[in-house]
Specification:
Elements lengths: L8 H68 L5 H5 L2 H7 L2 E2 L3 E7 L5 E3 L18 H10 L5 E8 L5 E14 L5 E9 L1 H62 L14 H31 L1
Antiparallel strand pairs: 1-2, 2-3, 2-6, 4-5, 5-6
């Protein structure tokens, strides 16, 4: 007796259940992900900034420390010229020292910007004015130091592979001159990401963790959607199936089959409907019986 309907109660209940359950869950997941990402970016961004500032301080301290060492050496050896100091292994070791993992110190003429000591021998005795066009940010810092002044700043450095990386440089001058009247300046430089690298690694781990948690959330949404569909299907069937059955019973009764049995029993609102139909059957049967008796008496 089951009949088919169009866009009936079942799909409406399913859509309603999905909306009621998944929309709030989706909003919660979005807010959780957004808050995690925002807090992560804020903490990591502030941490990166602090580490880079610390790195800049370390570079500055290194430049001043090397300048102090060279100044003592020059004062203890006032007879030595720049050329003689360039041939002095002890002075060379003091002039070119490591800064961080890949950085270094270099020494140049504080007035002419001619490099005097560098980890790369090809740069020694090179006029750094030549880098003004190729590395303008670098030259801007170097130019500001001419005359024995202190200067510092960030600049892009061209790597051998052609890539540009951000560096920080601090320049300070010696308070002493060589025998040939040259005042030297010490430049300490390195990549700032050396200091923030641990935090960058942490950022990658945090991003990976957020992605993992997001996948868990997506799985939760999927499981919830499946559970809602199943639960809605079961609930809708428990409601729509007896209603369709009763509709079929009503059709049979309308055809005059008043003895049609209702083979389901419920204690809910549908049970009330079943009892109403049963009373209707009895009322119709009684009415028909009376009509038949009346019609029989009239024929007699």
């Amino acid at each position: 007796m089951e009949r088919r309907v169009g866009f009936g109660l079942f799909p409406r209940m399913l859509i309603f259940a999905l909306v009621i359950s998944l929309v709030p869950l989706g909003i919660i997941i979005f807010l959780a992900y957004y808050n995690m990402a925002t807090i992560g970016d804020l903490v990591l961004g502030q941490g990166k900034k602090s580490l880079e500032e610390l790195g800049a301080q370390i570079i500055e301290s290194k430049a001043k420390d090397v300048a102090a060492q060279l100044e003592v050496y020059v004062k203890l050896n006032p007879q030595k010229t720049v050329k003689e100091l360039q041939g002095d292994p002890a002075f060379q070791a003091l002039a070119v020292q490591p800064v961080g993992k890949t950085g270094y110190t270099a020494v140049q003429d504080a007035h002419t910007a001619v490099n005097l000591f560098h980890k790369n021998p090809k740069i020694v005795n090179t006029d750094l004015h030549q880098l003004a066009g190729k590395l303008p940010e670098f030259w801007k810092i170097m130019e500001a130091s001419l005359g024995g002044k202190e200067s510092a700043g960030y600049y892009d450095w061209l790597e051998p592979d052609g890539k540009m990386r951000k560096k920080y440089m601090f320049i300070t001058a010696l308070n002493a001159k060589t025998a040939d009247n040259v005042q030297m300046g010490v430049a300490a430089t390195t990549y700032l990401d050396e200091f923030s690298r641990p935090l960058l690694d942490l950022e990658e781990k945090v991003s990976g963790l957020i992605r993992e948690r997001l996948m868990v959330f997506y799985g939760l949404v999927l499981v919830t959607a499946i559970a809602v569909v199943i639960a809605s299907f079961i609930l809708a069937r428990t409601i729509t199936k007896p209603i369709l059955y009763l509709a079929g019973v009503a059709d049979e009764i309308s055809k005059g089959k008043l003895a049609t049995k209702i083979e389901i029993s419920r204690r809910d609102e549908i049970g009330v409907l079943i009892e109403s139909i049963k009373r209707m059957q009895k009322s119709l049967a009684l009415a028909i019986k009376k009509l038949q008796e009346k019609a029989g008496s009239q024929r007699v």
